[in-house]
Amino acid sequence: MSGFRPGRLFLLDTQPVRVPVVMLHSVVGFRADRPPTFPVWCPPPMFEGYLAWMKRRGFSTITLAQLHDHLAHGAALPRKPIVLTFDDGYLDTWVYAAPLLRKYGFTATVFMPSDFVQPGETPRPTIEEVRAGGLAEDELEAFGYMNRGELRALAQSGLIDVQSHGKSHTWLPVSEEILDFHHPETPLRHLRWMWWNRHPGKKPFWFTAIDPEGVPWGTPIYRNELALAGPAVTPDPGLERLLTAHVEQQGGAAFFERDGWREELQALTRTYRASHPPAARPEDAAALRARLSGELRGSREALEAITGRPVRFLCWPNGGTCDTAFALLAETGYLAATLPSRVRQPINRRGTDPARIGRISATSFFRGTEKVFPWVLSFALKVERNRGVGWAELPIKAIWLYRRVVPPSGGRPIGGEI
Q1: I need a labelling partner for 377 at 20 to 30 A (CA). Which of 165, 219, 264, 280 fits?
Q2: What is the model's pLDDT at position 103?
Q3: Domains of the chain with bracketed CATH
Q4: Max alpha carbon distance in the chain (Å)?
Q5: CA 159 → CA 60, 75, 276, 300, 345, distances in Å?
Q6: How far are the Cα atoms of 27, 93, 103, 125 from residue 132, in angstroms, in the given order?
Q7: Residue 357, number of CB atoms within 10 A of its CB
Q8: Rounded distance, CA 383 to CA 20, Å?
Q9: Euclidean distance between the first and final Cα of the chain, in Å?
């Protein structure tokens, strides 16, 4: 289907093998016990549809180590190779995704942020126990992150390779510019990282444990960036003490029911800064390297201690990275890292940099529907285009034009990020 190439007449390799590397997140649906903080990316029927299509089309899953050996040294690959990757290490990777992979004879990689590994050495029940009649599906624990025992079992079985998604997977202040002040309606995109940084031991349980009161009311929300994306700053703690004490004295959460509360905190900030001007400076090169090195090496060593298997590949948390972080990969024990989704993704084939892994997203063009076929169609088109199959480009362009006029719809947002 990829077109006639004269070289085939002479059995010549006129086009290097292109290896799609697919990015997935969670594989779980809309259950009654789903925390409102937990987004749904790919319900199990859609993921099984992907696997069934791959099986029919003759794909073979490979590991990132196999991909790297091919890119760097020309190692042989099976026919129609593909890499499946899961970001974040959600519990449903163990509960739903792993049993489905086993059913279809495929393997995958999970990128796990080491700070989010749940304690516990006992693997929890999976959908296989439900199918065997041992318990009902709504009795499965499905939301949160995998524990130590589950990661170890996956790694040792060879079913899912455990690799690094960094250590903290958080955001840090990058200047003393204040975007807002923490209040009862603080968006989750800000609340979560402020809460994580104050309660690092609770991060594995944050989907249910996060509480707006876990960050003092009135805390400044500083301009921030992903922790691995560049230099951070440490803002003046005195300003936070002043603002949070003022809010507490004025009634705590009730303070924010008053008109003009934001302007009141801004005025207090101006008064404080008249005698304590912002003085925080971004980390210098040495401090940045030390922090990034600790993140990268710390995650690798923690995961290797759990699984007993080498960790040599990294996926940047939320795509946050910088030149310094990339330069530290080899020094901290990694062979390669994925590229952020916001940059142009390279095709994974001989002749490309083996330390840079390009990925395609499994998010469906039709994510507003709960029908399986449109999701599988979207997945198939993305994979085939990435493999270099020319005909896939036309329907993708047609769907893109259609989506410009008719955006994804549906009562439940599948595939959205928080």
Answers
A1: 165
A2: 98
A3: 16-167+291-405 (3.20.20.370), 171-226+236-275 (no CATH)
A4: 83
A5: 13, 21, 56, 19, 26
A6: 20, 19, 14, 11
A7: 26
A8: 6
A9: 38
CA atoms within 13 A on the CB side of 172: 19
| Distance, C-alpha 24 to centroid of its chain | 8
Q: Around Cβ 157, how many Cβ atoms within 10 Å? A: 11
Tokens linked to 314:
């990294």
Neighbours of 135 (CB within 10 A): 11
User: And the tokens for 171?
Assistant: 């955001």
356-360, long-range: CB within 8 Å, 24+ apart, which pairs? 357/21, 357/64, 357/67, 357/313, 358/21, 359/21, 359/22, 359/23, 359/85, 360/20, 360/21, 360/22, 360/23, 360/386
Residue type present at position 361 = S
Residue holding tokens 């923490």?
182
Write out pLDDT tens, residues 160-184.
999 999 999 999 999 999 999 999 9
